[in-house]
Protein: Muramoyltetrapeptide carboxypeptidase
Organism: Burkholderia territorii
Amino acid sequence: MSLQPAASYTIRLLAPSGYPHDPDAINRALERLSGAQHRIENIEATQRRFQRFGGTDGERAGDLNRLADPERALPDIALAVRGGYG
């Protein structure tokens, strides 16, 4: 039985709520995704921080609104870099 290579996807990162607290974990995840030949967009979302959030309201809203822009291609995957409230 041979394994087929995994597909390569375009993954757009979002931080719609809080910022990622563990930079090492983010770096490992980015290395792993890139190593699997995935195209990563919006890496800057992993670096932004405003108060307890993953960027200003405008930055976070802009990330989400970009997904609704009919002039731009959608990514294969929109991936939140951290969970929300709860």
